[in-house]
DNA sequence: GCGCTAACTGGTAATCATTACCGGTAGGCT
DNA sequence: AGCCTACCGGTAATGATTACCAGTTAGCGC
């Protein structure tokens, strides 16, 4: 019979742990560097691989910063529930926010223009209370 | 005395024309290919250069597709007026939309979380009326 | 029209993040 | 213990964007 569909490996956990302790969004390269510097080395390919499968599994969210960098963040237990993020552009702290009003608005606007199958991206970037105070 | 701060060159116009006739969003590579195929060749470096300066001048908008590609589009006469886009993911047709309600919502949410200096990205992707009908 | 100078051009090399390959490793089952 | 297969991870490849830099040219004064 075929072995388990999904093996549990040291590296798999390491990547997830890194995301957990990171707290906010971080790039694949960040995860790689973090693991490496804490002696828990994992191959770069492997990091990308796990990140990708976590995304597919809906366990992490992905956003592209305005600079075009792809960042990942461990999110919502089961990946259900569409939501957006309010990210501090200095410390990376992230707040999850819901925007039912926006979803509705988006759907309405799209319909007005005759568009179907609408999807959207929405991210807020700012400076969190602490970073604001620190100036 | 120093010559004009900004020269007008064949290539500069070519890039702008390409964006104009493209109508929707297109990547730098697309512009390059388009110009090249219509015999109006312009160096790739030059395309990027002009695209960048047009962005700086506020004459074109930039958005990153979910796939991470950077696309450009000639927009708003003088670059004034913050707005968003409703892009057809099949034909690229783009509608400019305003979302005062969203702007306001974003500001409110951010304030609630103590964030300042808030900025945001918002793009809608869908299938336009025509492409919808074509299925 | 002529010449000058600085801005512009464009081919090539360099960067950077991400993906593809592929021989080697090691879970998990029997 | 032994096998089968998914998983690892170093390296090469890719693709978009930027940096360099020598050659070209627009625009100004004469």
Summarize the entry for a quick read:
2 copies of one chain form a homodimer. With 135 residues, chain A is of the alpha+beta class. Helices cover 40% and strands 24% of the residues of chain A.
Gyration radius of chain A, to the nearest Å? 18 Å
Share of residues in strands of chain A: 15-25%
Helical proportion of chain A?
40-55%
**How many strands, which pairing sense, and closed or not: the largest β-sheet of chain A?**
3 strands, antiparallel
The chain pair with the largest interface is: A-B, 33 and 33 residues
* Spatial separation of the terminal alpha carbons of chain A: 62 Å
Oligomer state equals: homodimer
**Count of separate DSSP helical elements of chain A:** 5
Query: Strand order across the biggest sheet of chain A?
Result: 1-3-2
Number of DSSP strand runs of chain A: 6
| Class computed from helices, strands and strand pairing of chain A | alpha+beta
Low-confidence parts of chain A = none
Mean pLDDT score of chain A: 87
């Amino acid at each position: 019979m075929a072995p388990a569909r999904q093996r549990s490996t040291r590296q798999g956990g390491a990547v997830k742990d890194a995301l957990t302790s990171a707290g906010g969004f971080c790039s694949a390269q960040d995860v790689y560097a973090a693991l490496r510097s804490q002696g828990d080395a994992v191959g770069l390919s492997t990091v990308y691989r796990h990140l990708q499968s976590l995304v597919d599994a809906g366990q992490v969210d992905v956003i592209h910063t305005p600079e075009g960098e792809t960042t990942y963040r461990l999110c919502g237990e089961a990946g259900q529930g569409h939501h957006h993020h309010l990210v501090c552009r200095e410390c990376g702290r992230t707040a999850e926010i819901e925007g039912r009003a926006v979803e509705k608005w988006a759907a309405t606007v799209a319909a007005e223009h005759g568009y179907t199958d609408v999807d959207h991206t929405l991210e807020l970037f700012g400076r969190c209370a602490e970073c604001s105070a620190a100036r």
